[in-house]
Every structure is written in C-alpha cells, then in structure tokens.
Amino acid sequence: MQTNQEPLTFEKVWLMFQETDRQMKETDKKLNKLEYLFTSQWGKLIESLVEGDLVNLLNQRGIKVNHTTQRSKAFFDDRQYEFDIIAENGTEIVVIEVKTTLRPDDVKEFIEELQLFKEIYPKYANNIIYGAVAYLTEDSGCSRLASRKGLFTIRATGNSAAITNSKNFKPKEY
Fold it and tell me: What are 26-83's pLDDT values in tens digits?
C-alpha cells in the first residue's frame, strides 16, 4: 500500500507540538474564565441569601440596621480591600465576610481586616464596629472559633440565613 504523505520531519513534529501547546493554553484560559464565573456567581448567591434576612436577624439581636451595602471596595496602604456586606445604623456597623465554605484562615484574615476597618474607612472612626462571618458550610469548628473571637456567625440556610451564636452572645467591638 502506497501513501502520498510526505515523511515526518523533526520540524513538522515540532510544529505539531507547538500547535497543541497553543490549543492547550487557549483551553486553560477558557476553563479559568468558566471557573471564575462559577465561583463569583456562587459567592453572589450566598451573599444574597445572607443579605436578604440580615436586617431582621440583626434587629432581633438589638442592632437596628437601616442601611446595607454589598461588595464595598476600598484602597488603603497600597492594598485593595473588599467587604462583602456592611450593615449600619449610624452608630453601629456590622461588617460581614461571606464564604461558601468557612475555613480557619478565613476567620483569621477577616479579623486582621476588621482591626484595620476604621483606618480603611475613616468615616466610621466614631462608630462601634462588629464583625460577622456568614457561610453555607464550614470546616469543623470554624463557627466556634469565630464566635470565640467575638464574631457573629451566620449560616445561610435554604432561602435565608440564621445567626448561630447563643442568645446571650456579646460580639466584640473592633
């Protein structure tokens, strides 16, 4: 059996490898875009679940919220900060970090950011600042860790959310 194909040369094989590499990089870019789209949309969904019942939840805990803001961005010390939800009433501010899965590092990093909150937002310098972490699921013990650190813990459930701290919990002021 005869073929009309030219024999493969090193150069032809090298060009095929280069083309395959280019196609793989294109595929990686598309997959990264899809992953970002999925995770960012999932995060927005969890934020919406929490924010939907947040005013009622905080009112039940004695914090009469009259304004909420989602995804507040600020720049401080050459770094960008984003706070998922800020609930306020003119005197008290509750800053909420929302996670699909709450992990110990999330709690630690959020507390570090909370400690800078009044510097990041000087307009709140005279307010009482509380922190909260909201989540759908958690690594074992994360909500207890957050509560011990003085944070409200809010679990997104079904079509709303619930504060999981005990009724006599007193949040830490930051």
Answer: 887 877 776 666 556 677 777 877 788 889 899 999 999 999 999 999 999 999 999 9
Q: Any idea which fold 34-163 has?
A: Trna Endonuclease; Chain: A, domain 1 (3.40.1350)
Query: Which residue is associated with the tokens 């960012």?
Result: 40
What is the layout of strands, in order, in the sheet containing 67-76?
67-76, 79-88, 92-102, 128-138, 152-157, 160-163
Boundaries of every domain in the chain: 34-163
pLDDT value for 138: 93
Closest Cα partner for 133 from 166, 155, 116, 117?
Answer: 155
Nearest Cα neighbor of 129 from 144, 143, 148, 110 is: 110
pLDDT for the residue 147: 95
As a three-state string, the secondary structure of 102-123 is ECHHHHHHHHHHHHCHHHHCHH
**Nearest-10 Cα torsion for 96, 154, 161, 134:** 50
